[in-house]
Amino acid sequence: MKLKKQGIIEMRQFKMNNNRFFILHYPFILILLVLLIASSIKSTAQGDLLVFPKRIVFDETKKSQSINISNTGRDTARYIISFVQIRMKEDGSFENITQPDPNQYFADPYLRIFPRQVILGPNEAQVVKIQLQKTDQMVPGEYRSHLYFRAMPDVKPLGEKEIQRDTSSFSVKLTPVFGITIPIIIRKGETTAKVSLSNISFQKTYDSIPVLKLDFNRIGNISVYGDITVNLILPNGKTIKVGEIDGFAVYTPGMIRNCKIELKKGVDYKKGKLLITYATSVEDKDSKLAEAELELH
């Protein structure tokens, strides 16, 4: 599946402080961990791992949910499942953290995962269960942690002889280990969120790519998540869809996120106006989160 540009959720590449290693055969063994978060499609995929759905939200009516993972590769793979905590920056990038920011709550103390390790053969699938626990200890608000599916490198089968090497030499081997994270969100008590769009500007890059820049401003005690659509409304009333981003989030406790959207080429942007709409999925009744217009000259 093709990944749409800038989609977040939920799988965007980020650096974790302890996730870069090297394998040194002698005298030490270290591992290079490449962690990718990217996702703007209904299923999230990285390497040979496919995860569905791409995000989980618990409200007070749900006590357990399921995640389907499948190995689309040709070899048997082992996946370790754990939690990581991340912070979203204003530019939409991520960084791992160990302590919550002010007004941020981690979800993992209130969640139970089973199983935490999965071995899948080619084209095999597995259901991972997530259950709420200790909810009576929670205060109103939103809790968020990210579930991390880490593919482990192949290990030497039992009984296989170790190849003798020249111990006087030094060699380096890089082993990439891929992973996927998806957000797990718990909402407790009364929750509110509003979004507004500001600092909207249109420009062209040095290579003449039309770009729309704007800021998403969030208020309230929960994150927002939805799809961005940009339409060009011509003076004669004709509408042309010129840009979109699926799965765009502004996570708590962040209040603002910058956004840059590359628009469709070959369109005359000298007349009319751009209509920017930020909305949740069509299944939701109140789908529109924010809308704004930019007059073109």
Give a description of the structure:
The chain is mainly beta. The protein is built from no helices and 21 strands. It has strands spanning 23-24, 44-46, 49-52, 56-58, 64-71, 77-84, 86-88, 94-96, 111-114, 117-120, 125-132, 141-152, 172-173, 179-188, 193-204, 210-220, 224-233, 239-250, 256-262, 273-279, 288-295. The strands form six sheets. The protein has a five-stranded antiparallel sheet, with no helix packed on it. A five-stranded mixed sheet has the order 4-14-12-6-10, with no helix packed on it. The chain has a four-stranded antiparallel sheet with strand order 18-17-20-21, with no helix packed on it. A hairpin with a 5-residue loop joins β15 and β16. The radius of gyration is 22 Å and the shape is globular. It starts with 22 loop residues before the first strand and ends with a strand. Residues 1-42 have low confidence and may be disordered.
